[in-house]
Amino acid sequence: MNAAIIIPARFGSTRLPGKPLKLIQDKPMIQHVVERAQQVTGVSTVAVATDDQRIVDAVHAFGGLAHMTSSNHQSGTDRIIELVDIIPADIYINIQGDEPLFRPTDVVQLLNTMQDTQAQVATLCHAIDAREATDPNCVKVVLDAAGNALYFSRAPIPYPRNPGSASYLKHVGIYGYRREILADYATLTRPMIEQTEELEQLRLMTAGIKIRVIQVEPTGPAVDTPQCLKRVRELMAAQTAAYSTHEHASSSPKSDTIL
């Protein structure tokens, strides 16, 4: 099936305005996301969907593809829907523009899951500890026995009535949608739970659409706040330093001396 990655990137974040253009290792954050998305095998197009010309200009400056979309959209998925006729595909992958540490191999897993015609929507999660589960910026998900989402929340779910009894899964904001699901999504109104939690996936669940959830290894945090940005900068600097050390060790000449 033909698949496209579309990266919603909004300039006016309330917690970190202009975050797609925040620099990480001398590159705007959106560039890191695009470059990782381009490493995903089996994808025909990678494009940014934004509401700000500054983001379009930044993406074009490093050779990426970007489209202007309406500033009135209420979610990243709404922004993707605007581009469905411009970027035709069978499956659309939504990778948020604030996920510079996502693993391309995780997205390949998601694409493989979407080959199952019963999977209308798919997303990712990974295990976290009870401390992280209390952070409202960290979205939690609980699953049914088939691996479909029962609910997403900013609250720590499930609630640990008996201390130490709960385990937690963090939602990773990457989705796969079939084209026909996006057509349906465009007709749905925002339910109370979506408006309350500010989680767009709850619109689909309220309409009875199942979301398949794939558990992956823990990944780096998204950039939601200035504190998140600081943490991501530190993590990416550490990754670069570790890679440079490995490359140096691999290229060092080996001694011919026999001991």
Summarize the structure.
Activates KDO (a required 8-carbon sugar) for incorporation into bacterial lipopolysaccharide in Gram-negative bacteria. The protein is of the alpha/beta class and 259 residues long.
Explain what you see.
The chain has 259 residues and is an alpha/beta fold. It is 32% helix and 22% strand. It is built from 9 helices and 11 strands. It has a 7-stranded mixed beta sheet. A two-stranded antiparallel sheet has the order 2-3. It holds the Pfam family CTP_transf_3. This is 3-deoxy-manno-octulosonate cytidylyltransferase. Its EC number is 2.7.7.38.
* Structural class by sheet pairing and helices: alpha/beta
- List how many beta strands DSSP finds: 11
Assembly classification: single chain
Strand arrangement across the biggest beta sheet: 5-4-1-6-10-7-11
What is the CATH third-level topology name? Spore Coat Polysaccharide Biosynthesis Protein SpsA, Chain A
Mind summarizing the main beta sheet?
7 strands, mixed
Work out the radius of gyration.
19 Å
Question: Which ranges are low-confidence, i.e. pLDDT below 50, for 5 or more consecutive residues?
Answer: 254-259
**With helices defined by DSSP (H or I, 4 residues minimum), what is the helix count?**
9
* Helix content, binned percent: 25-40%
Work out the count of structural domains. 1
Write down the secondary-structure element order.
Answer: EEEHEHEHEHEHEEEHHHEH
The rounded distance between the terminal residues' Cα atoms is: 58 Å
Rounded mean pLDDT score: 93
In CATH, what is the class? Alpha Beta
CATH architecture: Alpha-Beta Complex
